[in-house]
């Protein structure tokens, strides 16, 4: 593990290179009209101008804003949190010099090495340490360098953090101040151990909240919410492919976005697509292509934002209206988030369903380096699912 | 690029509050030198003798003791002069209380009145002795065989019994197996079954205590005492915790109960080094091995460890307390399946923390056969009284099965509670709710 991890430090530095032309994802075929690179500069999912910020009632109105990418927005949220409360501490592997993805850049200089520091290379230690610090009243923000390396801490998360409040009962102790940040998802060449999205493993565990933002604005609001407004342990998974790629206007002031609340990104009447994190951009592109190809079709797009406990009402309301649903995620289809969402839809909107709920997700294999573009959901697969579901 | 960034980070200003050693390295090994400049071992000397360090060539770490098995102080310099005779008597009674409670509860489990139990026989001295050196503001993380720590820190028999019978007065709201005790103040985090998970948590809690004291000197300087057995020390969490405690200079005292067995596994199959103590040195942690059957040695070592842990901005200390697990591992274990009855009988007869302190008390004329008999009878009566009171109490209301998973009940939990209620109402003959507070209304 250590050899690969050392090599992985170089990953972020190449982001700008492979962002446009992913190594294993390959260039688009000359004739492609669906599987084109995501144009983050034009996607409707990002706030390209300050004026669109005011259209979101969840965001602060009349705030000044700045164009930030995802890692800068995380950095801004962490800076805001560290300034707001001296009980916030930030630690993990290589956090002190700014982090291998630059999320903690300059924070040790600003807030001191007692609040922002490196730990030894031990994931179970990092999470165990964070649980103890949270129990004593601190608000630890622990970083696991890649979600792929969170598994050594699985015991501490599942048996300890998640069950802490429950087993303490009336003593009142809890580890609610805890936030675990971790980069997740595919990056084009991450292969087996720099690509994983283990959210469904944690969504099976009552007691922790699992959150995945899709954009810089959302990342800042959700992260501040996880740190200050949520008194439960939160696993905050950051799609690392968006660290540099997704750039948008982010309000400068401090604000929070509620957890366990989905967001309807685009209204529609014929079909509901439910997704979260980076695949939302693929969904958006597929929807644009489908609506263009199929006259009059309107597709609703929902960003789950919190994977667990999740906003079932928003999803059910939408599917009761549209009668058709597709769930899209990067992680494997077997026992994935899509299974829970599809089962809930089947249970809560059975009489309204006009087609089977479709799951577009990673195949049940590992993210082999050379095969990434064939394994993960892309625009063509989502487009095809839209077509099949509408024509069912 | 990475190397440059990392080394540059080392020159950044660091806080004056916490001294983190900052090593500055130049090019390694220029010219002729006697000591190395490799960043990984700055104090190492070069040698031309090719020699492997062999653990078998190193002497085993000595075991600190204050009194011998006859209750006689070995070196008067270390006689317990900092404590009154009355106080020592309370320690003795606390050890006795745990011991008598153990006998009664073990038997109760055998009669099926309790689902599970674990006794502390042979290790009462480690628990009570170390707890005498803690302040009420100190925080305890324990494994499960440390009832004496709670007893010494004011846990009542009613609290013990409520937890053991998981009745409505149980702080854990009837959710945990027996002996998984917890208390809000003096803080003892609720025991959890997964071994060693509490060790890195203790490290993080100690760091919090240190930071909060620095930020607000009105917070009393406090330590975390973290207990675990020698078997648990084989878990990865032990390694993670000691390393993190050393690198972050956390005021935590690790207290290892080395009782010779982890369930059926003898220490020879647990490790091949010099016990747990020898590893403390490897992590850069000040370490002592003590005689766990000698309550004075345990107390003195813990007291000094606490002082050292708080000195100079904080640091971890490791105490390995040697003892012998006289009892079965738990009520689910018959230890004669893997060790000879004669070995256990021998230990019971030869050495025991309670008998040793009793001899010391008798030598000083503070104790005698009559006092012993009367005190035992009195403790036994009190335990049995609390036992039957706790056994008669109702279980907590059924809603507690769902609360405290999150701070607030989720919508999903509310729906599931409703569904359970519907099932209970539809099939009342299938479920007995009489022992639960408020019956169906408790949901």
Automatic annotation (TrEMBL), chain A:
InterPro entries: THDP-binding, Transketo_C/PFOR_II, Transketolase-like_Pyr-bd, Transketolase_C. Residues 68-245 form the Transketolase-like pyrimidine-binding domain. Its cofactor is thiamine diphosphate. Coiled coil: none annotated. It catalyses: N(6)-[(R)-lipoyl]-L-lysyl-[protein] + 3-methyl-2-oxobutanoate + H(+) = N(6)-[(R)-S(8)-2-methylpropanoyldihydrolipoyl]-L-lysyl-[protein] + CO2. GO terms for biological process: branched-chain amino acid catabolic process; generation of precursor metabolites and energy; response to nutrient. Keywords: Oxidoreductase. Its EC number is 1.2.4.4. This is 3-methyl-2-oxobutanoate dehydrogenase (2-methylpropanoyl-transferring). SUPFAM superfamilies: Thiamin diphosphate-binding fold (THDP-binding), TK C-terminal domain-like. Signal peptide: none annotated. GO terms for molecular function: branched-chain 2-oxo acid dehydrogenase activity. It comes from the Eukaryota. It holds the Pfam family Transketolase_C. It is an enzyme of class 1 (oxidoreductase).
UniProtKB/TrEMBL annotation, chain B:
One of its GO terms (cellular component) is mitochondrial matrix. GO terms for biological process: branched-chain amino acid catabolic process. The lineage of its organism: Eukaryota, Fungi, Dikarya, Ascomycota, Pezizomycotina. Its cofactor is thiamine diphosphate. Its EC number is 1.2.4.4. One of its GO terms (molecular function) is metal ion binding. Keywords: Coiled coil, Metal-binding, Mitochondrion, Oxidoreductase, Potassium, Thiamine pyrophosphate, Transit peptide. Pfam families: E1_dh. This is 2-oxoisovalerate dehydrogenase subunit alpha. Belongs to the BCKDHA family. It catalyses: N(6)-[(R)-lipoyl]-L-lysyl-[protein] + 3-methyl-2-oxobutanoate + H(+) = N(6)-[(R)-S(8)-2-methylpropanoyldihydrolipoyl]-L-lysyl-[protein] + CO2. Residues 92-397 form the Dehydrogenase E1 component domain.
């Amino acid at each position: 593990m250590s050899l690969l991890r050392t090599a992985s430090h170089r990953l972020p530095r190449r982001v700008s290179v492979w962002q446009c032309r992913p190594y294993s994802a390959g260039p688009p075929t000359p004739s492609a009209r669906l599987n084109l690179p995501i144009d983050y500069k034009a996607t409707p999912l990002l706030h390209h101008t300050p004026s669109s910020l005011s259209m979101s009632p969840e965001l602060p109105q009349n705030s000044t804003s700045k164009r930030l990418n995802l890692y800068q927005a995380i950095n801004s949220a962490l800076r805001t949190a560290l300034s707001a409360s001296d009980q916030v501490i930030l630690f993990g592997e290589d956090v002190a010099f700014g982090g291998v993805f630059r999320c903690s850049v300059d924070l040790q200089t600003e807030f001191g090495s007692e609040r922002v520091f490196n730990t030894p290379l031990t994931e179970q230690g990092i999470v165990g340490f964070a649980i103890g610090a949270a129990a004593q009243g601190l608000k630890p923000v622990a970083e696991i360098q890649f979600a792929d390396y969170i598994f050594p801490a699985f015991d501490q998360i599942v048996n300890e953090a998640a069950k802490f409040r429950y087993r303490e009962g009336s003593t009142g102790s809890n580890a609610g101040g805890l936030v675990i940040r971790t980069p997740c998802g595919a990056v084009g060449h991450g292969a087996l151990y720099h690509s994983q999205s283990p959210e469904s493993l944690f969504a099976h565990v009552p007691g922790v909240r699992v959150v995945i933002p899709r954009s810089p604005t959302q990342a800042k609001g959700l992260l501040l919410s996880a740190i200050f407004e949520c008194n439960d342990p939160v696993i905050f998974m950051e799609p690392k492919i968006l660290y540099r790629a997704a750039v948008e206007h982010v309000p400068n002031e401090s604000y929070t976005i509620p957890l366990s609340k989905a967001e309807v990104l685009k209204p529609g009447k014929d079909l509901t697509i439910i997704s979260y994190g980076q695949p939302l951009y693929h969904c958006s592109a597929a929807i644009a292509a489908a609506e263009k190809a199929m006259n009059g079709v309107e597709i609703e797009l929902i960003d789950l934002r919190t994977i667990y406990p999740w906003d079932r009402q928003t999803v059910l309301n939408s599917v009761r209206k549209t009668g058709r649903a597709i769930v899209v995620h990067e992680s494997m289809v077997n026992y994935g988030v899509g299974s829970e969402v599809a089962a809930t839809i089947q249970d809560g909107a059975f009489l309204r369903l006009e087609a089977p709920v479709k799951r577009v997700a990673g195949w049940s294999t590992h993210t082999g380096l050379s095969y990434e573009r064939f394994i993960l959901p892309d625009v063509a697969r989502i487009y095809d699912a839209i077509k099949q579901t509408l024509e069912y | 690029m990475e190397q440059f960034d990392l080394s540059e980070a080392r020159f950044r200003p660091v806080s004056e509050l916490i001294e983190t050693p900052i090593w500055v390295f130049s090019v390694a090994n220029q010219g002729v030198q006697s000591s190395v400049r490799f960043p990984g071992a700055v104090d190492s000397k070069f040698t031309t003798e090719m020699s492997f360090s062999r653990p078998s060539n190193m002497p085993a770490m000595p075991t600190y003791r204050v009194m011998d098995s006859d209750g006689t102080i070995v070196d008067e310099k270390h006689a317990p002069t900092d404590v009154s005779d009355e106080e020592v008597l309370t320690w003795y009674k606390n050890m006795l209380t745990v011991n008598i409670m153990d006998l009664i509860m073990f038997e109760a489990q055998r009669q099926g009145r309790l689902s599970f139990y674990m006794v502390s026989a042979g290790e009462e001295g480690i628990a009570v002795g170390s707890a005498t050196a803690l302040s009420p503001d100190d925080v305890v993380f324990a494994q499960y065989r440390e009832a004496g720590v709670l007893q010494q820190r004011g846990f009542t028999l009613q609290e013990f019994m409520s937890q053991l019978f998981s009745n409505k007065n149980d702080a854990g709201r009837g959710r945990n197996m027996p002996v998984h005790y917890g208390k809000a103040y003096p803080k003892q985090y609720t025991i959890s079954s997964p071994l060693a998970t509490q060790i890195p948590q203790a490290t993080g809690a100690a760091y919090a205590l240190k930071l909060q004291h620095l930020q607000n000197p009105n917070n009393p300087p406090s330590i975390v005492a973290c207990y675990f057995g020698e078997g648990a020390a084989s878990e990865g969490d032990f390694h993670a915790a000691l390393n993190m405690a050393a690198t972050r200079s956390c005021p935590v005292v690790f207290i290892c109960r080395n009782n010779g067995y982890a369930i059926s596994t003898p220490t020879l199959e647990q490790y091949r080094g010099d016990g747990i103590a020898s590893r403390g040195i490897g992590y850069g942690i000040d370490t002592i091995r003590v005689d766990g059957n000698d309550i004075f040695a345990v107390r003195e070592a813990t007291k000094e460890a606490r002082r050292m842990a708080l000195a100079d901005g904080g640091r971890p200390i490791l105490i390995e307390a040697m003892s012998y697990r006289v009892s079965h591992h738990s009520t689910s274990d018959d230890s004669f399946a893997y060790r000879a009855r004669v070995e256990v009988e021998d230990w019971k007869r030869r050495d025991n923390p309670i008998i040793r302190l009793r001899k010391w008390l008798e030598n000083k004329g503070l104790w005698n056969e009559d006092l012993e008999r009367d005190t035992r009878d009195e403790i036994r009566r009190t335990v049995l009284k609390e036992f039957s009171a706790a056994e008669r109490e109702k279980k907590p209301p059924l809603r507690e099965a769902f609360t405290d998973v999150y701070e607030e009940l989720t919508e999903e939990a509310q729906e599931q509670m409703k569904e359970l209620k519907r099932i209970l109402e539809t099939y009342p003959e299938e479920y007995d709710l009489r022992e639960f507070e408020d019956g169906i209304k408790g949901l």
